[in-house]
Amino acid sequence: MAKLEIKIYPDPVLRKKAANVEKAGSGERKLAYDMIETMRSANGVGLAAPQVGISKRIIVVEDAEGDEKISLTLINPKITQKKGRVKFCEGCLSLPGISNDVIRPEFITVEALNLDGEPIKINADGLLARIIQHETDHLDGIMFIDKLSFLKRKKIMKQLSAKVCVEF
Length: 168
What we know:
Order of helices and strands: HEEEEEEEHH
CATH architecture: Alpha-Beta Complex
Structural class: alpha+beta
Strand content: 25-35%
Radius of gyration: 16 Å
Number of helices: 3
Oligomer: single chain
Largest sheet: 5 strands, antiparallel
Mean pLDDT: 94
CATH superfamily: Peptide deformylase
Low-confidence stretches: none
Strand order of the largest sheet: 1-2-3-6-7
Shape: globular
């Protein structure tokens, strides 16, 4: 496994719609394992392939059941049902140091392929539902800041441009 470089906003790959995976194979399996290693080393709970510069519809998420962490890989995930509304503070590995409350559905059903290319269906709520929605958004070039009000987004953009000016 190899640690991958996480792309930071405003990298254009983060705004591009990712391509469907036609067939899950050894390349997708290696990418998923590398993404899991990258996510964990960055102390993240989810990661989408575009965040590591790969424009494919693959996400990895960490599902914490008690003390046990289980990593899930979802290929071509599609959220088929949404229910409820809940606000929770989100951050993003591609927007380091930025976080804000985001309203999302509380319960979801997602259909996808697993690493063996087999169809799976997951009913999720709470943090797992939020992570899946956040990462699935990345596959469509949507970032959590897009879900904020104009004024909040403008304030964050100002913060980001100040960071860019300082870092370079």
